[in-house]
Amino acid sequence: MTWEERWHPLREEWIIIAAHRQNRPWIGEMLENTEDKIPEYIEDCYLCPRNTRVSGKTNPDYEQIFVFDNDHPNASFDAPKAETPKAEIYRSKPAYGISRVVCYSPRHNLTLTELKVEEIVNLLKTWGEQYKDLGSLDEIKHVLIFENKGEAVGVSNPHPHCQIYANNFVFKTIENEARSSQEHFESTGKILFQEIIEAEIEDGKRILAENENAIAFLPYFARYAYEVYVAPKKTHQSIADLDESELLGFAKVLKTVLIKYDNLWQMAFPYVMVLHQAPTDDGDYSAFHFHIEFHPPLRKPNLLKYLAGPEIGGGNFLSDTSPEEKAKELQRLSEIHYKQTV
To answer: Is the pTM of this model over 0.85?
Structure first.
């Protein structure tokens, strides 16, 4: 049984690990797995090829990756001028930025997990191109790339896709991570994330996949039951900085993690996936280490990790599971997708 507090060095906060609570009596809401056979094409899906979106624009008959400006952006250079608040302690500014959608495949019934390694490499390259393209704009201070997968996280369309938010501010988690990484480097001369990788390799208990160029692990300070980090072994500020061999190694490790996720409960595993990349505001981010974080909402096949008093009210996570036990579960799973073994 693990019952302790663990320090999260990237977020600079304590995580309460209370694994003995995982099997406490539960009579609250339970989720049902309503996964049905999904067709390859759906006529009214606004992300499928040849279909008309709500903006009136028609998707091309694309065969691989398709990128377009979001029809419902969170920010735009056409955003109206913000009203000046009456109170001096309040501030506002126009929501300037660009929102984009990246469709992974024309097939509606695929997921990132089911893409071939070479298709994942192409996606990684697309993410890098988008980061560089959007980040080069003077008004853009940060490029956030993320995927919400599954009904459990409220995804609006199951067609395989992710979103890009390029905004005129730096998202708080990245801002904090960049600051803590830089401060650690200035005080120790070491890259914080490199020390995390070294600690995970030395411990070895939570590593899920590894090759010459990349590594995936369930971190010592995990907040969610099946939280996983995927990172290149060399320090890079963004996905755009990885060379061909690093991209291939990264894609292989990423696919292994995704397969293990699906194999866990033989279902399309829901998650929030976020690319942690350095801000693009011309600051010094030499100590920032690009990586991808997965935050799965389920702690059991039909039970969500609800954010409640400690998380929403207190601001610190309480984990009902032990990172070591969850890592063991994932480590035992096959690297061949369950659908291929049927």
So the answer is: yes
